[in-house]
């Protein structure tokens, strides 16, 4: 197999872009699992929902409201769509998930899985399955010559934006007072409550935040992937593997693992493309054998 | 006395024989007093846009055109979701045949469901018409005298596009293939044509199914320098590959073109003309081909608010010709209907110059299409320029020895 350095660099860059999505999605999952002990299977559907909201904002809402020229552009959607998805997530937490905290993890998993199926089915019913196209904003259209490849500007933006978001999230949870409260809340909610902190509200907000991260990833993905009801479900399997490898609930772990697996996947696509999905699960199996708590997880 | 007795018995038995055969003819005309058409397809999953509810609507148009009756018996329609799973399809088909009085089942966007139901239909002496099932096995090793592949197969799709592009001097090819049976068979058929016509396959990238990010594969294909990047995949994989190629500016020059080997008009609709423009593809039907196809399509549009896909149009044609064959044969008995169909020249709003072969392949004209530029498109669904009409004999595969029905001649 002859690979030029140029092609190698190009594939690595593409891998990094994939890794950014894995990192953002798995971070949201890790936060939700780490602080709420919920295995959030609706994550993929929430990712998809945000992408659809962005698409609706850009192409549909004007005609619906009777002003064909009115549209919500990408930048506004990048803020609004994750907020709506986050609020939607909080509603689910308040009305449904809350009832399951005293039960085994499995119940949360089943509930969120069911909600995901309902959401996907609903979108499929209304919008069909072939999907919708979403154009990136004008300023980010067209490629940039990196020397070794032509990279679309939009993809560069995705890398920068998602790295900032990941770092910001990590900082918020690991380095601020709020983050300390949140972590204390998982260790000992009663004690924290006795300090006058409203733990249930905090948990709802945390779930909303984790879901909103999926929402941001969804809006960022809309111009890259076709917006379809199944776009999240397809990704979710890999993202769960990322979370398991990184250590369930470890924010730093899921971020690093997400990026690393994106790169490994990119390399596999050069060497033996048939294995590019399998490689993630092989690594997961190996990681579980060597370190059952995950690479960044704490042994309990 | 003895002779008299013998003569009497003979006469009585002859009378009885005549009576029973007359009765049989009466009863055999239409079994159960109703002709029932079943549409078995994907109503909720990834193939529901180009089959789904639209297929049943298309079948209903055909039934209405026949006046809702054939040989005096009413024609009824049933539809169900096989969820692309062969076991579910097989159970539904058994139920329909055993209790539902269903005489013919059409559609099957997933080949595995088609093959499963074909087998059951053969045992129970009913008809299957694969309007959406494109597997070669259905007319090769799994062929059945009671089955018709009523539109296309992977070979015809691949060969149509490949031959047309080779004819324009594009000899070097690169395949981006979905890594499962369907993708492999599409790739195999197309590369056979490419090599037979003096072309060269420079390389293949097989991607996991379903794939999300195709940029690696498309970049590899681009750097191979091949004149044609052929996509041996379908649905959202094809759409994402084309969309992401456009992002990188791949396939935008005359030196290197992208050729999806299996594309439906619903895919082009979903991609948008800006991304899909200039691509070459082969379809068996395009709604805006001529007066007749437009007339049918407008009827369909009035019902569904979309133009029919080739598969949905195929369901219309299959149902219409099945009913016509019953009328001509004077019975709905599966064997008789199928041999009548084989003797007919198929020519309707959808199928042109068609004849049904012994192995079940419907050989008919196909269309080489090129996607319009956004500026050329005058209305929604105005997507294609018809570049040429491909003669059925040139694009459909030769009868294979793998099908025992071909051996009989």
TrEMBL record, chain A:
Residues passing through the membrane, by range: 12-35, 47-66, 72-93, 105-127, 154-173, 199-226, 238-264, 271-290
Main localization (coarse): membrane
UniProt keyword terms in alphabetical order: Amino-acid transport, Cell membrane, Membrane, Transmembrane, Transmembrane helix, Transport
CDD domains in alphabetical order: TM_PBP1_LivH_like
Pfam families per record: BPD_transp_2
InterPro entries the record matches: ABC_transp_permease (IPR001851), BCAA_transport_permease (IPR052157)
Coiled-coil intervals: none
Subcellular locations according to the entry: Cell membrane
Membrane topology: Multi-pass membrane protein
Family, similarity comment: Belongs to the binding-protein-dependent transport system permease family. LivHM subfamily.
Protein known as: Branched-chain amino acid transport system permease protein
Native organism: Methylobacterium aerolatum
Organism classification: Bacteria, Pseudomonadati, Pseudomonadota, Alphaproteobacteria, Hyphomicrobiales
From TrEMBL, chain B:
Source species: Methylobacterium aerolatum
Entry-linked SUPFAM superfamilies: Periplasmic binding protein-like I (SSF53822)
Name of this protein: Branched-chain amino acid transport system substrate-binding protein
Listed PANTHER family: LEUCINE-SPECIFIC-BINDING PROTEIN (PTHR30483), PERIPLASMIC BINDING PROTEIN OF ABC TRANSPORTER FOR NATURAL AMINO ACIDS (PTHR30483:SF6)
Cross-referenced CDD domains: PBP1_SBP-like
Homology family: Belongs to the leucine-binding protein family.
Highest taxon listed in the record's lineage: Bacteria
Signal peptide: 1-24
Pfam families with a match to the protein in the record: Peripla_BP_6
Alphabetic keyword roster: Amino-acid transport, Signal, Transport
Record-annotated Leucine-binding protein domain positions: 35-372
């Amino acid at each position: 197999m002859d690979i030029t350095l140029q092609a190698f660099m190009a594939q690595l860059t593409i891998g990094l872009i994939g890794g950014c999505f894995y990192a953002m999605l798995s971070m949201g999952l890790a936060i939700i699992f780490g602080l709420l002990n919920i295995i959030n299977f609706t994550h993929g559907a929430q990712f998809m929902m945000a992408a659809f909201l962005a698409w609706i904002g850009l192409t549909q809402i004007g005609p619906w409201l009777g002003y064909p020229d009115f549209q919500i552009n990408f930048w506004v959607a990048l803020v609004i769509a994750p907020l709506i998805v986050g609020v939607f997530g909080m509603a689910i937490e308040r009305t449904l998930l809350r009832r399951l905290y005293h039960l085994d993890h499995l119940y949360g998993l089943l509930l969120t899985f069911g909600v995901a199926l309902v959401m996907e089915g609903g979108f499929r019913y209304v919008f069909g399955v072939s999907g919708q196209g979403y154009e990136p904003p004008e300023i980010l259209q067209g490629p940039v010559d990196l020397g070794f490849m032509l990279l679309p500007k939009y993809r560069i933006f995705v890398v920068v934006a998602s790295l900032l978001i990941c770092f910001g999230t990590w900082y918020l949870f690991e380095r601020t007072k709020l983050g300390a409260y949140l972590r204390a809340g998982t260790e000992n909610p009663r004690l924290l409550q006795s300090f006058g902190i409203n733990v249930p509200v905090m948990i709802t907000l945390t779930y909303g935040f984790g879901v909103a991260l999926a929402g941001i990833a969804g809006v960022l993905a809309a111009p890259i992937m076709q917006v379809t009801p199944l776009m999240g479900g397809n990704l979710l399997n890999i993202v769960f593997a990322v979370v398991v490898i990184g250590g369930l609930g470890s924010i730093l772990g899921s971020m690093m693992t997400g990026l690393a697996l994106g790169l490994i996947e990119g390399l596999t696509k050069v060497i033996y493309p048939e294995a590019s999905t399998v490689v993630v699960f092989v690594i997961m199996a190996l990681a579980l054998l060597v370190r059952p708590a995950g690479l960044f997880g704490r042994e309990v | 006395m003895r002779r008299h007795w013998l003569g009497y018995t003979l006469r009585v038995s002859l009378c009885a024989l005549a009576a029973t055969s007359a009765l049989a003819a009466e009863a055999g005309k239409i079994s159960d007093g109703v002709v029932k058409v079943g549409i078995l397809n994907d109503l909720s999953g990834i193939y529901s846009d180009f089959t789904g509810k639209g297929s049943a609507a298309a079948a209903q148009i055909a039934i209405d055109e026949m006046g809702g009756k054939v040989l005096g018996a009413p024609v009824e329609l049933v539809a169900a979701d096989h969820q692309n799973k062969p076991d579910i399809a097989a159970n539904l088909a058994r139920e329909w045949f055993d209790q539902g009085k269903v005489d013919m089942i059409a559609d099957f966007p997933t080949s595995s469901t088609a093959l499963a139901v074909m087998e059951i239909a053969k045992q129970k002496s009913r008809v299957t018409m694969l309007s959406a099932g494109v597997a070669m096995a259905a007319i090769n090793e799994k062929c059945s005298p009671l089955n018709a592949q009523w539109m296309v197969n992977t070979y015809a799709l691949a060969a149509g596009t490949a031959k047309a592009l080779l004819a324009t001097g594009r000899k070097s090819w690169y395949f981006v293939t979905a890594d499962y049976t369907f993708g492999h068979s599409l790739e195999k058929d197309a590369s056979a044509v490419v090599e037979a016509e003096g072309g060269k396959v420079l390389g293949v990238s097989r991607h996991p199914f379903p794939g999300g990010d195709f940029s690696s594969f498309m970049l590899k294909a681009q750097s191979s320098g091949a004149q044609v990047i052929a996509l041996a995949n379908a649905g959202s994989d094809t759409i994402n590959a084309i969309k992401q190629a456009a992002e990188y500016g791949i396939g935008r020059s005359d030196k290197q073109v992208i050729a999806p080997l299996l594309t439906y008009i619903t895919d082009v609709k979903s991609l948008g003309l800006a991304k899909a423009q200039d691509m070459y593809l082969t379809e068996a039907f395009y709604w805006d081909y001529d007066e007749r196809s437009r007339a049918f399509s407008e009827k369909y549009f009035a019902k569904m608010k979309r133009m029919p896909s080739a598969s949905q149009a195929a369901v219309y044609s299959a149902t219409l010709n099945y009913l016509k064959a019953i009328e001509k044969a004077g019975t709905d008995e599966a064997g008789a209907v199928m041999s009548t169909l084989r003797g007919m020249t198929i020519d309707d709003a959808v199928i042109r110059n068609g004849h049904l072969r012994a192995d079940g392949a419907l050989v008919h004209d196909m269309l080489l299409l090129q996607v319009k530029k956004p500026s050329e498109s005058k209305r929604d669904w105005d997507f294609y320029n018809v570049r040429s009409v491909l003669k059925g004999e040139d694009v459909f595969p030769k009868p294979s020895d793998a099908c025992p029905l071909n051996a009989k001649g």
